[in-house]
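Please predict the structure of the following assembly.
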Amino acid sequence: MARLSQLFVPTLREDPADAEAASHKLLVRGGYIRQVGAGLWSFLPLGWRIHEKVVAIVREEMNAIGGQEMFMPVVTPAELWQATSRYGIPEVFKLEDRVGRPLVLAMTHEETVTSHARELGSYRDLPQILYHFQTKGRDEPRPRGGLLRVREFVMKDSYSFDRDEEGLEESFRAHERAYHRIFERSGIEFQAVQAESGMMGGSESVDFLAPAGAGENTLVTCERGDYAADLEIARGVPRAPELPPRLDAPEPVDTPGIATIEALAGSLGIDEAATSKAMPVVNGDGEVVLALVRGDDRLDEAKLAAVLGSAVRQATDEEIRSAFGADPGSIGPVGFSGEVVADETLREGQFVAGANETGRHLRGVEHGRDFEARFADLRVPKEGDACPRCGGALRFQTAIEVGHIFKLGTRYSEPLGARFLDADGVERPVVMGSYGIGPGRVVSAAAEQGADEQGVAWPRSIAPYDVEVVPIEAAGPDAMGIAERLVDDLERAGLDVLVDDRDRRPGEKFADADLIGCPVRITVGKKVLEDGRVDVLTRAGRSEERVQVSDVTNRMTEGA
RNA sequence: CGGGACGUAGCUCAGCCUGGUCAGAGCGCCGCCUUUGGGAGGCGGAGGCCGCGAGUUCGAAUCUCGCCGUCCCGACCA
């Protein structure tokens, strides 16, 4: 039993000034976490209890699929990171020891674990699943939202080692199933989606996204439930444009001073979707490339970069004038000598485009007749798009990435020389997967999803305590005796009990109980002396009922 | 890295524009009293390098410059 009078739970009456996200505000107000620096947070005792409850769930499920827990250091020799060409990643924290030897603070542990995997010399040693809970350091350019994006955090990272792709597939699916169980048990709403592999490399990855009021990802789902993806790779079917009558040849139209699609469509009295938007960029070779998307769409620069095979930057006004001979608001594909990459939406139909003459546009521009282009998916899906599978409406939700699993293949085993001898005597690189969960992200997702005006209603499985008992001392010693016996009873039933034994007024205790957010609050006041009942409040939904003291423990345990 | 905002007591903020009884409030904290089912009230008290450093001035929380820090948007991102 924990006595609130003896715990370090510094609750705050007001929202912290620098917090925006609900989870950020409430986690600070509730005395769960405190900031140390940008993206650097301490978990206070209450917050750490929640964190460790998540950790316990993760550990159980990892062990259940044969994972072996181990522990690898944060400080890592730079050579390992140089070997895999990840030393140059800007987010890597770098440091030197006293003799100037370069080191990194690991942001993940592929390099280290793969170096150990060199001892897996035979196919007989495979498969293996190794994991640990360890601090990751990431020098993020912009930490934000409390625990949402931080520069140091604990991660459960596991690594699978298999003989071949089939083995990897099995390890990958085992993790996928384990992750589903973990997030279900943690009591958060989530969705598994196909995702980008980003800097991890590898062939396939699945993201676990928890919809929330704040987050870094956007979850795109079909209202009919047959499609879910991260916005980064999502595809939507845009509405059909209202095209004006077809023209036999492009027709110039004066558009002085018009530089935006909105103004263009407005002045011509046409649908924005019947215009094209020209986005000149400069590719890795320094050439100006024209990216074209429909007027009502946004260009996804990552998709464009993938198509072009190099990073791109926006062209400067000078570059635009010299390449197109016109100001940025009036450029288009017709007559442009460089490469044109156009979104699929522009393949059919006629659109308005810049005339490459300042203050002038062309109506009726048509691919094939008036210009040539390479077509690709370049647009950012948006509200109003239809599901690519069934045509249903797509939903867009802000979400927190709570887990991510990757098929790595031999991305790390090759450069680090983790090879084994197969049954046929041939040496092969170990086939790997890596799988991460940020318990702190699970905490913030649960906080976002359980937040209300008063605090956070935690899921029972990760709540800091199962039940908080609030004795109202003014009710007198007899009532307090009943409260004490009730607490003993609850404890004997195996429940984690928090008692607010502070010498405070009831209102303050209630407010803090809401903030602390135990799933159940039991108030023992003078009314218990009249009818032997206490008030049992279910934090989520705030339903309160009067229950016989003798029934409380049964009530608490039967649902668990 | 680009744009914006902010930095004064433990927390939330006022004061700055217009330099001079300007070191302030509320909450929190300590003591006493009173009160006790939704953050009560009274009296007394402790608590500040006004982010740091230069400069201007007789005089700087206030004006100028530089630096540092934090947050938000964007870029970026296992």
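Chain A has 14 helices and 30 strands. Chain A has three domains: 19-75+106-216+396-448, 251-376, 467-558.
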